[in-house]
Amino acid sequence: MLEVKGINTFYGHAHVLFDASLAVREGECVSLLGRNGAGKTTTLRSIMNLTPPQGGEVVFMGRALGGLMPYQVAKAGIAMVPEDRRIFPTLSVEENLSLGAKRNAQGQAPWTLERIYDMFPKMAELRERSGGNLSGGEQQILSITRALMGNPQLLMLDEPTEGLAPIVVEDLVEAIHKLKRERMTVLLVEQNLNVALDLADRCYVLDHGQVVREGSAEAIRRDDGLRHDLLGV
Ligand code: ATP
User: Fold this and answer.
1) Domain with 104 in it: what CATH number?
2) Residue 223 is part of which domain span?
């Protein structure tokens, strides 16, 4: 579904991603791992063309994304849920969700308010609550479900568990498992290694802007050296 081929990304003169390549197949959950500053968020930003790569290419469902504006990448079927969630605090949950609604490139809308409320009853319960009055975990689920309302083919989540209490992390992990059961394709950036390995089918490890390892979640879990050397855990 997604192929990132040898991309190089810069912030000004700072070269941050070096010939980074990865692939995500339909229905997979792929995790990007790496220490702080390894380039995980930059990889997602590069895919969205928020920080367009200056070399290499990104191909999504057979279409090269080079030269597209971020909104056009979104329209092509990729949704990114950023680390800061971007909830509209004065709008209700339902208004936040409705703002995200759009049909996919095929003109279909498999994700509707009804389906979201059915799968995530907490959102139904909170539908009248303003976004600013939600807990961190509720905001994170809102931010993910709002992205789903855009009917993306690929959902990219940046550090969804960041700043959440462990008990809330469990709810969130269950929510992402639900999406996996619905065959949603997910590219996940996650600092919490247990969460990343629990959810991922495959992982890529980034170090100083380079992809240094690819493997199944199981292989990464078993590799003590890699966890110590590259992930610092
Ligand atoms: P973290 O979990 O800390 O966000 P990360 O793996 O997502 O880590 P990135 O945010 O992609 O890392 O950052 C990669 C490198 O790019 C870091 O050295 C960071 O300091 C640098 N960087 C990130 N954003 C900018 C920016 N807007 N301008 C300049 N440098 C940046």
Assistant:
1) 3.40.50.300
2) 2-229
Report the number of distinct structural domains present in the chain: 1
What tokens were used for 184? 């949603």
Ligand 1 center to residue 202 CA distance, Å?
23
Tell me which of 15, 31, 33, 40 to substitute to probe ligand 1's pocket, judged by most ligand atoms within 8 Å of the beta carbon: 40
For residues 219 and 64, give the distance between their C-alpha atoms in angstroms, rounded to a whole number: 31
For the CA atoms of the chain, what is the radius of gyration?
17
Average confidence (pLDDT) over 145-151 = 95
The CB of 192 under 6 Å from ligand 1? The reply is: no
pLDDT at 107: 78
Main-chain dihedrals φ then ψ at residue 129, nearest 5 degrees: -70, 140
Distance CA 221, CA 31 (A): 13
Task: Write the single-letter amino acid at 122.
Answer: K
Q: What is the pLDDT of residues 36-94, one digit of tens each?
A: 899 999 999 999 999 999 989 999 999 999 999 999 999 999 999 998 878 999 999 99
Instruction: Give dist(CA 89, CA 76) in Å, integer.
Output: 28
Task: Please give the model's pTM, rounded to 2 decimal places.
Answer: 0.93
The dihedral built from the CA positions of residue 204, 178, 191 and 92, taken in this order, carries a sign that is positive
Residue 127: both structure tokens together:
């539908």
Q: What mean pLDDT is predicted for residues 123-152?
A: 94
